[in-house]
Amino acid sequence: MKTVTEFPRKVVEFPNMGIVMPDGCRLSARVWMPDDAADDPVPAILEHLPYRKRDGTIFRDQLTHPYFAGHGYASIRVDMRGNGDSEGLMDDEYSEQELQDACDVIAWAATQPWCNGNVGMMGISWGGFNCLQTAAKQPPALKAVISLCSTVDRYADDIHYKGGCLLIENFGWASTMLSYSSRPPDPLLAGDNRWRDLWLTRLENQPFLAPLWLKHQHRDAYWKRGSICEDYSAIQAAVLSIGGWHDGYRNTISHLAANIEAPVKGIVGPWIHKYPHYAAPEPRIGFLQEALRWWDRWLKGIDTGVEADPAYRAYVMDSVRPARWHPERPGRWVAERVWPSPEIKTQEVELIPEGSKPAIVASPQSCGLAGGEYFPFTFGPELPGDQRPDDALSVCFDQPVLTEAIDIVGAPEVLVRVSSDRRQANIAIRLCDVHPDGASELISYGVLNLTHHNSHEFPQALVPGESVTARIVLDQCAYRVPSGHRLRIAVSNAYWPMIWPSPEPVRLDLSAATLTLPLRSLAQGDEVMFPTPEAAAPWITETIRAANSERHVDRDEKTGIVTLSITDDFGEVRDLEHGLANGSIARETWAIHPDDPLSASGKTHWTQTLSRNGWSVRTETSAEMRSDAQNFMVNARIEAYEGEKLVFERNFEESIPRALL
């Protein structure tokens, strides 16, 4: 990545600009802008997050926001209320208060003497979500959005209920936010006499969100609010949507490109959950240059040619050997003028010939351990591995060896006719690329709670022994299967630890199954090019403890329990400008007995540290989730230390009735 230090306009930074909301709550913003913006006003770009601008997202902020400022923008990175250096309290993700605050910041920015009245909003993950939801509120000054790794559906395509199945990440992410939001503001910004009071008030009111999310097990009004798929026409700002094939949010780009009436373009690369100018697997792209083209057109009125860009640009990945991490993925960029593309044809493959005996699907509860993380994040061993261990626990439909390569571009689907011996059952379907030696690489997957086969809002119990028809839509993908390989469709009724298991062991009888593949003519090379990555000067730090990620699967031969243990040590670094050192470690264990779905358990333990010149704080947060046939049981604990002194402790414990999931 090329570091740019000379820009068209000289940049000035305000590390703690206060923005007071109508209710008096002061939000803290880090703002970069041209030093002459008061004389020559510029558009503003907002990123509105709970992830701490002082020490949380500072690495990517340093690369990105000064770059925009140097090209004639006021780039505003706001800590949401209740987080980082801002006042107030947070009670949920994407709350009405959060979105109203974003609208108020946009209105505030538009009226500043250094702003020309036009505002854009951007972000990845949480910030990608809330910029779309804020755009649906139609604040008058908001003209353009760049949303990365986001969703249009808070229920069925977020970390909560994929296909109506309870994702383990629902609990995992609640545990992560409990830790993230447990940290205090920086005393240098909040004041020596004030930071502690803000911190303790925050801790006393901090929510543990897993019980709240578990109380909404169907697609009710709670999830519809903020799901922009409820009314795509509400988005009137121009939207650039970007995502990665190794991220959990790979479907949004297609949904937005196909449904938004405002100007919209989509880009999908081979990346994990990161901005694409420093993401992996490579190749990276010049994201900041692409973003400037978008901003310049919609915020400055400059003809940059973005309107003539293809509607959908995607990286078709070549087949590789299965591995938990790929530093790069060979492949090529393809471009579709419109999306959905008339150039993509569908091919149907009958998996169970008419008149055949039903295939019996009765997977051990530990099936799924090769699936990887929902959204890989650490540049470490989080990608799906060789699928053969899971394939061996599934019913597999292997296709003939390919005599010529195929490009799969889009969302594969499987239509099944299936019966269950229980009132509730899950089904997981994986599309795999099987190498000549048997190695199995995951292309895409989909899961469905079969009680939701007609509706996520109004599920219906299955009648044991009675067949239903269900369509399982797999995630969007762009993948070349080479000649000499074969496709495998693997079907299981467990996918641990991606989804929480059914309350009882289940047998599915699969009497019919048809695969629909979206196929595109083979691309002969790159059909579109991107500039090489550029960024502003990186964050200057001193490493105190190096980062490290570990992942282990253990089977207790005495008890039969299979345990996945994950340790992500994000390391510890010291900022060489303001001196604040920060470190964090996340630990997770996911355990289950192959024969007992009620043995499933998840445990998390996070440590966060902050220190400077003899001052130090530490938070320890832990959480656990289990279930019986009737209830989910979750508990959590926060401990906060100043130095070695325990200054705060709090326990959460709740049992939530288990709906007919």
UniProtKB/TrEMBL annotation:
<dbReference type="InterPro" id="IPR000383">
    <property type="entry name" value="Xaa-Pro-like_dom"/>
</dbReference>
<dbReference type="InterPro" id="IPR029058">
    <property type="entry name" value="AB_hydrolase_fold"/>
</dbReference>
<feature type="domain" description="Xaa-Pro dipeptidyl-peptidase C-terminal">
    <location>
        <begin position="292"/>
        <end position="539"/>
    </location>
</feature>
<protein>
    <submittedName>
        <fullName>Peptidase S15</fullName>
    </submittedName>
</protein>
<keyword id="KW-0378">Hydrolase</keyword>
<dbReference type="InterPro" id="IPR013736">
    <property type="entry name" value="Xaa-Pro_dipept_C"/>
</dbReference>
<dbReference type="Pfam" id="PF02129">
    <property type="entry name" value="Peptidase_S15"/>
</dbReference>
<dbReference type="InterPro" id="IPR008979">
    <property type="entry name" value="Galactose-bd-like_sf"/>
</dbReference>
<dbReference type="Pfam" id="PF08530">
    <property type="entry name" value="PepX_C"/>
</dbReference>
<dbReference type="InterPro" id="IPR050585">
    <property type="entry name" value="Xaa-Pro_dipeptidyl-ppase/CocE"/>
</dbReference>
<dbReference type="InterPro" id="IPR005674">
    <property type="entry name" value="CocE/Ser_esterase"/>
</dbReference>
